[in-house]
Design brief:
Number of helices of chain B: 11
Largest sheet of chain A: 3 strands, antiparallel
Radius of gyration of chain B: 18 Å
Strand order of the largest sheet of chain A: 2-1-3
Structural class of chain B: mainly alpha
Shape of chain B: globular
CATH architecture of chain A: Roll
Distance between the termini of chain B: 34 Å
CATH class of chain B: Mainly Alpha
Largest sheet of chain B: none
Strand content of chain B: under 5%
CATH topology of chain A: Ubiquitin-like (UB roll)
Helix content of chain B: 55-70%
CATH architecture of chain B: Up-down Bundle
Oligomer: heterodimer
Number of domains of chain B: 1
Number of domains of chain A: 1
CATH class of chain A: Alpha Beta
Structural class of chain A: alpha+beta
Order of helices and strands of chain B: HHHHHHHHHHH
CATH topology of chain B: Ferritin
Helix content of chain A: 10-25%
Chain lengths: ~130, ~260
């Protein structure tokens, strides 16, 4: 099967078929590292935020990579790494899953805004 | 800070050795940029190389403050024989086993050296050491992780390659600690603890990590000295030619 040839060796290695109608030949299971998801804590006591992932053979090396990929600039307090397969997410087809009906004001906290002022006003009215 | 001329010379000799080592290993390690075994390691190792270049610049700046020429002039215009880096850092990058072992042996020594220098009586060097010690801690963490991984957690091939390369590289590594006569002045004035003291701590630390990595330090080794007195390997001259190629085209260019 003729493949695209390019000056860029990466394109040549990919073996992309010249004819766009041709299906890719399925590749063997690649001999690659796991991916680890990286979570960086930028403030002392703050949340660890997901920033991306790294390939690594074990958690120690994942940590060595994560530090340099994601903590090179700016202040960092700590880093977590977790094997990607240990992260679970919802399998959601319907995008309205997270929608909330807007007219349920009793579920919102608006009435608790400026509580201090309201208490002061109430105290005053009682004087 | 008023040193007599002999002590000042001894101090400059120390700074030149440290700066030249940093500059040359920075250049060597940066040769892996774009060729690292995987993307993440390529970025990490390149970043470490960049840190080393920064350390070299800081040390050349201290020399400049002591009356030596501008950092760029020192780095790019000296003759090969005027460099005082050890031969260890001059050797080509070889395979990744060679570069990782050099990184491990070199950075462990740097961590000990800079840690000891945080209490140097030469204030600017103590201050610089405190500033860069965190970077070097990461370099050592990165190196230690790979040593244990490839030595103990890899396979037979990785262990075999690491041990063979350790045997090959060890005499060169000992060349980092070549005794310098004028260091006696630095030791007596509390500027530096001297190479022997650094070497003793170094052997202790690398032994701990190499034991975890199932690797054995070779016995009865004759160190490869020479770099400190300008007697370099055949590899330094071509390296300097390449490193100074752009600078030589127009030394007055600003970047």
């Amino acid at each position: 099967m003729p493949t695209i040839s390019s000056l860029d060796p990466r394109i040549n290695r990919a073996g992309i078929p010249e004819d766009p109608e041709t299906a890719f030949i399925p590749k063997e299971q690649l001999d690659q590292f796991h991916t680890y998801e990286v979570f960086v804590q930028t403030k002392s006591g703050g949340h660890h935020n997901h920033v991306g992932s790294v390939h690594a053979p074990d958690p120690e090396i994942a940590m060595a990579f994560a530090k340099e990929q994601y903590c090179r600039r700016g202040q960092t307090f700590n880093v977590w790494v977790a094997v990607t397969s240990s992260i679970f997410s919802l399998d959601i087809q319907d995008s309205d899953f997270f929608e909330t009906v807007p007219d349920k004001t009793y579920r919102e906290v608006n009435d608790y805004i400026n509580t201090r002022e309201k208490i002061e006003a109430f105290k005053k009215s009682k004087q | 800070m008023n040193y007599d001329s002999a002590t000042l010379q001894a101090l400059k000799s120390l700074l030149y050795r440290m700066a030249d080592d940093s500059l040359i290993i920075a250049h060597r390690n940066s040769e892996w940029t774009g060729l690292g075994p995987i993307l993440e390691e390529d970025i990490a190792f390149s970043s470490i190389a960049q840190d080393k270049l920064g350390h070299a610049l800081s040390l050349y700046t201290l020399l400049n403050n002591l009356g030596e020429k501008e950092p760029d002039i020192i780095a790019f215009t000296r003759h090969t024989k005027d460099f005082t880096c050890c031969q260890f850092v001059e050797y080509p990058i070889g395979g990744y086993d060679f570069s990782l072992l050099r990184h491990f042996l070199y950075d462990t020594a740097e961590l000990i050296r800079f840690t000891s220098l945080t209490s140097s009586t030469y204030e600017p060097l103590a201050k610089l050491s405190k500033k860069i010690i965190g970077e070097i801690k990461y370099h050592v963490f990165h190196a230690n992780t790979w040593m244990v991984h490839l030595g103990a957690k890899g396979n037979e091939e990785s262990h075999e390659r690491m041990q063979t390369t350790l045997n090959l590289i060890y005499p060169l590594a000992l060349g980092m600690f070549e005794d310098i006569a004028s260091d006696a002045l630095l030791i007596s004035s509390g500027i530096y603890t001297g190479e022997q003291s650094i070497k003793n701590d170094w052997i202790e630390r690398i032994t701990t990590v190499l034991t975890q990595a199932n690797l054995i330090i070779p016995n009865d080794i004759t160190p490869i000295y020479g770099g400190r007195t300008g007697d370099h390997s055949e590899y330094l001259d071509p390296l300097l030619k390449e490193m100074t190629e752009v600078f030589s085209i127009d030394p007055s260019a600003t970047w």
